[in-house]
Write a structure and sequence with these properties.
Chain lengths: ~475, ~50
């Protein structure tokens, strides 16, 4: 868009606007949002500067119609209130300019408000107050803070693709999940990390899904992997995301704390004053660590429910360490044990191993029984919330993803799901992404009302939700 | 976030230019009005001088 300029039209002797274009300003390639904001601030300033001064504008008109009678000239001016009206217009223009510049600055600064730790912001505020008291350069302190964080912000923004959940699903065949326990007694305490929830995190499964689905809060998630204990899942059940932006990603627990519904800041790590880790590496996060990783995600959308059907590996029939233990017995004994003694020890080991296998088998049977109940619950939730259900299974060193289709032959009286009751179809993360459905506004509004009526959210959290969804 | 920020800034700028254009029009109309009144006075001035 050409720069607007006000010029004197010689024939008419009055001001005209050369270009009056209101289309959005195009962002130049490689131009950051901060540079763009600067450009717009300059344009705003230029717009008002291009006003011809009142005195000069009047003189120009008077030159085109020279009047000898000065009294008449003054009378006309007074009759139409020329000078007072021009003053009024100039004042209004100044007001509009200040308001627009302030709004641009505020929009840029909202970034900090949204992502920085309140304690960190308070420290900067204290420095500003101090500078004001001592007559220091307040603007320099303020700008110093924004300049210091601007680099991180730009680096964060340059990783648009790496941080997109949709892209990760399509390109890397990875799923990002938010684990939710099926029963409240399974739930580990996250009270300190979720002060926005009056329930202290002990809300039921369905309410937890509705909170993420309906309110899209900034949440803690993880990427499961077959190389980690429990497949790197905090709980074996929960939701798979289909959209969202990753703000931080660590190969271990980052202890993220909610500072509001839409602000979550990791407690651990170098960048613990901001919700944003300026650079993330998803491949590294998945490869490293033995337990679950933690990624904070803003604006999440739910693609489906998941349940981990992975069974513990069966222990071998023979104790794999038996020969090694017997050899050590010979090597480290002061008197070499007789063949008879060795046989006796081998028999004792076999007996112990057999007892271990029986114990393991009993545990496996118990877990299998529990899984049948839990899968039944997941089926119910999937139907109630109209969300597809996927299961994970660790097979041949891979964490496979399957879509579950329940057969119509299931006995409605039954409270368990047997293997014969469903069909599994292997899917990719991309398939899951492509099957996700957007929530219609009416449905979201209903969810918000439901959550509010349950009294799960703190008062401040409810206010944040109202602000975010005021247009619903 | 990046696009969201740019969209917000663009909206502020578009609103600003609309308001400013309306002010420019008011200013232009006012100066035109003044010129027309001066022209009327000038014509009267010439007529009066001819009648003398």
């Amino acid at each position: 868009m050409n720069r607007e300029s006000l010029h004197n039209n010689d024939s008419a002797g009055v001001e005209t606007l050369e270009v009056q274009e209101h289309a959005p300003v195009v962002v130049e390639s490689k131009e950051s949002s901060l540079e763009f904001a600067d450009k717009i601030l300059n344009r705003i300033k230029g717009y008002v500067d291009s006003f011809i001064h009142k005195k000069e504008a009047i003189e120009k008109v008077e030159k085109t119609v020279p009047l000898d009678d000065l009294t008449t000239k003054e009378r006309i001016k007074n009759d139409i209130g020329l000078e007072s009206q021009l003053d009024e217009i100039d004042n209004e223009a100044q007001k509009i300019q200040t308001e627009a510049s302030d709004n641009v600055n505020l929009t840029v600064r909202e970034f900090s408000k949204s992502y920085h730790d309140p304690k960190y912001r308070n420290e900067v505020a204290k420095k500003i107050i101090e500078a004001r008291k001592l007559g220091g350069d307040v603007e320099a302190v303020r700008n110093g803070f924004y300049n210091e964080t601007a680099g991180k912000k730009e680096s964060f923004e340059s990783q648009e693709k790496e941080r997109s959940i949709a892209e990760i699903m399509k390109e890397k065949n990875l799923v990002i999940v938010h684990a939710i326990p099926l029963t409240s007694f399974e739930r580990k305490s996250t009270r300190e990390n979720n002060p926005v929830l009056k329930s202290n995190g002990y809300q039921d499964f369905k309410t937890s899904v509705e909170i993420v689905s309906g309110l899209s809060p900034t949440i803690s998630t993880s990427i499961p992997s077959p190389d980690k204990n429990g497949n790197g899942l905090y709980y074996p059940s929960g939701i798979i995301l289909g959209e969202g932006k990753i703000l931080s990603a660590r190969s271990g627990d980052s202890g993220s704390v909610a500072h509001g519904m839409y602000k979550r800041i990791p407690k651990f790590g170098r960048e613990n004053q901001t919700a944003i880790q300026s650079e993330i590496n998803i491949d590294k996060v998945v490869e490293e660590g033995n337990y679950y990783n933690e990624l904070t995600v803003e604006s999440p959308q739910v693609a489906g429910l998941f349940y981990d059907l992975t069974e513990d590996a069966e222990p071998p029939l023979e104790n794999p360490k038996k020969n090694e233990l017997l050899e050590n017995m010979v090597r480290y004994s002061e008197i070499r044990p007789s063949e008879e003694e060795l046989q006796k020890e081998a028999d004792r080991m076999d007996k112990k191993w057999h007892e271990y296998i029986v114990e393991q088998q009993s545990e496996r049977d118990e877990k299998r029984r529990s899984r049948k109940f839990q899968l039944y619950k997941m089926k119910k939730y999937s139907e109630e919330m109209r969300l597809p259900l996927y299961v994970f299974k660790k097979e041949q060193g891979e964490l496979k993803k399957y879509k579950v289709t329940f057969l119509s032959t299931i006995n409605p009286e039954s409270e368990t799901i047997e293997e014969a009751d469903y069909v599994l179809e292997e899917v990719t993360a991309k398939d899951i992404y492509e099957s996700k459905k957007d929530i219609p506004s009416e449905e979201r509004a209903k969810m918000i009302e439901d959550i509010k009526s349950k009294g799960v959210l703190s008062d401040s959290a409810e206010k944040e939700v109202d602000k975010k969804f005021k247009n619903l | 976030m990046e696009n969201e920020l740019i969209d917000k800034i663009n909206k502020i700028y578009t609103d600003f230019t609309k308001k400013m254009d309306s002010l420019f029009s008011r200013r232009k109309d006012l100066l035109n009005d003044y010129r027309e009144k001066l022209e009327e006075a000038k014509i009267k001035e010439i007529k009066d001088s001819l009648l003398k």
